[in-house]
TrEMBL record:
Claim: Transmembrane is one of the keywords in the record: yes
Any Pfam family matching the protein: ROH1-like
Protein name: Protein BPS1, chloroplastic
A cellular-component GO term for this protein: membrane
Principal place of residence: membrane
Protein localization: Membrane
Transferase among keywords: no
Membrane-related topology note: Single-pass membrane protein
PANTHER family assigned to the protein according to its UniProt record, in alphabetical order: BPS1-LIKE PROTEIN (PTHR31509)
Superkingdom of source: Eukaryota
Length: 352
């Protein structure tokens, strides 16, 4: 993902993820199929809810919050599925455990990177508030201070985040993990791997969209060519095509940022700049007050959106962390996966 030309690559070079449904593998009972179909139907419905009704809804902080919430729910559904399958940890193949632990480490880093970026964007809110405070006065001295604050905001928002820049390599690794381990003996394991495949596709997609939005580049975008044998595949493809295309269009137009709320603030700042610098007539007080009021509204909306998204990213971090800790605990104690998941859910409730 370090190169723009890699944006549309699929993951088939990493192996065939669909071998888990090969007839040569263990036969899945009708009861297990019902469990799997219910899981995948819920996943498809979640993906459908992320399809925006209009382009204006796309790539807003509210949409990103919804996407992260859906991700939390899907990962929690995996925990529930494990309990329903009653699959003891002793029956887990070492490859499954290694893959799960490796993925969880990468997801924890991505969560930390996203949280750091949201915190950085929130810090810019202080500069905007300072500018708005100074714009409450009509004195030239206060205007100079407001101008300085807005300059500081633009420099702050435009600066890079090293943690976000590293997300590209991590997303590359997550793409490789989509090639699932081969299941030889366990029908329950086969169901679990197929369910986890769907959640991993959702995870890579959401994280790649976040990384692209935060890095202001298409280099971090992924294109996942999911086979139609999965019931949720058509819905996912529609969602992916709509979002990825909109990101490309916005960057091609030279957008300051693909996020709606950031772009709205930047538009207000650009409109105010000539007034602050004294290059236009400021005698029309009503017009000036209107522009300042718009900056105040867009600034507040940005702040609220960042706070809500930060909460969901933190929730996803806790979901991944408690699941990982539960599995490690079960490996040390010899407990069942069911006990581990229950422990993880209890800890998550305490944290929240």
């Amino acid at each position: 993902m370090s190169n723009a030309q890699d944006a549309n690559r699929s993951f088939f070079s990493f192996g065939n993820p669909f071998r888990i449904i090969s007839p040569k593998g263990p036969k899945i009972s009708s009861q297990l199929l019902l469990v799997l179909h219910a899981f995948e139907a819920t996943l498809e419905e979640r993906l459908r809810k992320l399809i925006p009704k209009s382009k204006d809804e796309m790539l807003s902080l509210s949409w990103m919050t919804l996407a992260m919430k859906a991700l939390c729910e899907s990962h929690n559904d995996v925990k529930t599925l494990i309990m329903e399958l009653e699959l003891p940890v002793q029956d887990w193949d070492e490859k499954w455990i290694d893959v799960y632990l490796d993925i969880s480490v990468k997801l924890l880093y991505i969560c930390i990177a996203f949280s750091s970026e949201l915190s950085r964007l929130n810090q810019g809110h202080l500069l905007l508030q300072c500018a708005l405070h100074n714009l409450g006065s009509s004195s030239s001295e206060q205007y100079v201070r407001a101008c300085s604050s807005l300059d500081g905001w633009k420099q702050h928002i435009g600066s890079g985040n090293p943690r976000i820049e590293k997300c590209g390599n991590i997303l590359d690794d997550l793409l490789e993990s989509l090639a699932l381990p081969k299941i030889k003996k366990s029908a329950k394991g086969k169901v679990l791997m197929q369910a986890m495949y769907g959640v991993k596709v959702q995870t890579v997609f959401v994280c790649s969209v976040f990384a692209a939005a935060f890095s202001s580049t298409t280099n971090n975008m992924s294109h996942l060519d999911v086979a139609d044998i999965y019931s949720w595949a058509p819905t996912f493809k529609r969602l992916q095509d709509l979002v990825n295309e909109e990101i490309r269009v916005r960057f091609s137009r030279g957008r300051f940022n693909v996020l709606n709320e950031l772009e709205a603030v930047d538009s207000s700042v650009k409109e105010l700049y000539p007034i602050i610098q004294g290059t236009v007539d400021t005698n029309e007080t009503e017009s000036v007050v209107k522009i300042i009021g718009e900056l105040g509204r867009t600034t507040e909306k940005l702040s609220q959106g960042l706070d809500l998204l930060t909460e969901e990213v933190d929730s996803f971090f806790q979901v991944v962390l408690t699941g990982r800790d539960a599995l490690l605990s079960s490996l040390r104690s010899g407990a069942t996966v069911i006990d581990s998941i229950l422990l993880g859910n209890r800890d998550a409730q305490i944290v929240n």
